[in-house]
Design a protein that fits this description.
Low-confidence stretches: 366-382
GO cellular component, one term: endoplasmic reticulum
Subcellular location: Membrane
Number of strands: 2
Radius of gyration: 24 Å
Organism: Besnoitia besnoiti (Apicomplexan protozoan)
Number of helices: 14
Order of helices and strands: HEEHHHHHHHHHHHHH
InterPro entries: Lag1/Lac1-like (IPR016439), TLC-dom (IPR006634)
Membrane topology: Multi-pass membrane protein
Structural class: mainly alpha
Distance between the termini: 64 Å
Strand content: under 5%
Shape: elongated
Helix content: 55-70%
Largest sheet: 2 strands, antiparallel
Number of domains: 1
Strand order of the largest sheet: 1-2
Length: 382
């Protein structure tokens, strides 16, 4: 069975279910009449309804969600400050757990202690997030006899299972988009993701300042917007797949950078970097557009599986915003993949000239490695 929802759907909302049979025989369960009723109430000027209600369709939304996010942002910022520290010149000399442990073990190259601590934080987070997200996908898969949406998604990868409920999910109370019911673990995962990326945005000015600082601001804002929007508008299924695909790549990225800043043999760093490049190409430029982006752009399947009930999904909440958000992410991925290719070319050129290890991040830092080394030597002298 699929996991039990966080809360049962009320009898009033359950009556909005519509069932169609797609040309391939699939039973398609939607709750589109609920959206249409909300639109009608907004158009008639009924008290308590506004355009905002079209983007707050998740039936489990609660003011306590905002409270949880705020407290988690505060907790994550405090934890990061304690274990990783700040990368500003005034704070680089101060104590942090990661820098203390790495310094005691003597496993980090001179002048790279702060960068190691910064990347180690991200490596731990994305590893945790990947395991968490993958376990939720497995839970949502159900069984062969009573499959959940994530199992059906791989059997029919046209995007339909991001929106419709399987028979097992229907027995749990979900009647299809937008009245999809996330489980309690799914809600905590999603709200924690919003909190984490908000903390990253707040912390950005205290990280190592690089030439693509503005691009990172755009990335963080787009990520927060996409995650929050997909949760509030009941697009959390496609959101979960997107987060898992991104974490897969980020795990390899940040562990590779940690290895690069350590004294581990260059061949290990090279292997991890190759795995990262391959995973980036597969996950972000192939699987992500195919499984997640294209189904939100191509509306032809919507008309097919609803037997013409919906001509296209662009007139529904998120029908335009969701593909825009995802397309922004694709554009950023293409930009960063260009940087990765430049890095590969630079490494190959360095190897031809006799270099024995990777030369570092292609992005320029405002504060050079030598500056960090000088500050370390100064501290030793004191």
């Amino acid at each position: 069975m699929t996991p039990a929802p966080f809360m049962p759907l009320s009898e009033e909302l359950s009556r909005y279910q519509e069932i169609y049979r797609a040309p391939d025989g699939t039973l398609v369960r939607f709750a589109l009449s609920y959206v249409e009723q909300v639109k009608a109430k907004i158009a008639s000027g009924e008290d308590g309804y506004s355009i905002v209600d079209l983007y707050l369709l998740n039936p489990t939304l609660d003011w306590r969600d905002a409270s949880y996010i705020l407290w988690t942002v505060f907790a994550l910022c405090c934890i990061r400050f304690a274990v990783s520290g700040l990368m500003t010149p005034a704070w680089k000399k101060r104590f942090s757990v990661f820098k203390f442990i790495a310094g005691k073990l003597g496993c980090v190259k001179r002048g790279k202690l702060c960068k190691f601590a910064e990347n180690f934080w991200y490596a731990l987070w994305h590893s945790t997030s990947l395991v968490w997200g993958a376990s939720l996908l497995i839970e949502e898969a159900g069984t062969a006899e009573e499959p959940g949406w994530s199992r059906m998604m791989f059997e029919q990868p046209d995007g339909r299972w991001f929106w419709i409920a399987t028979a097992a999910e229907h027995s749990q109370g979900s009647v299809g988009w937008p009245l999809l019911l996330p489980s309690a673990p799914m809600r905590f995962y999603y709200l924690t993701q919003i909190a984490f990326w908000t903390s990253c945005l707040l912390f950005l000015r205290f990280e190592t300042r690089r030439s693509d600082f503005i691009v990172f601001i755009i990335h963080h804002v787009a990520t927060i917007g996409l995650v929050a929007f997909s949760y509030a508008s009941s697009y959390w299924r496609v959101g979960l797949v997107i987060l898992v695909l991104h974490d897969w790549v980020d795990v390899l990225l940040y562990w590779s950078k940690c290895l690069q800043y350590s004294y581990i043999r260059p061949v290990v760093t090279d292997c991890s970097f190759v795995l990262f490049v391959i995973s980036y190409l597969v996950a972000r430029l192939l699987l992500f557009p195919f499984y997640c982006v294209w189904p939100t752009i191509d509306s032809s399947y919507t008309s097919r599986i609803t037997n013409g009930r919906i001509e296209n999904h662009y007139s529904y909440p998120g029908g335009v915003l969701l593909p825009i958000f995802l397309s922004v992410l694709v554009a950023l991925h293409v930009y960063w993949f260009g940087l990765i290719i430049r890095m590969v070319a630079k490494v190959l050129n360095d190897r031809r000239q006799g270099a024995t290890e990777m030369s570092g991040d292609i992005r320029s830092d405002e504060e050079s490695d030598s500056a960090e080394s000088s500050s370390e030597e100064k501290r030793k002298g004191e």
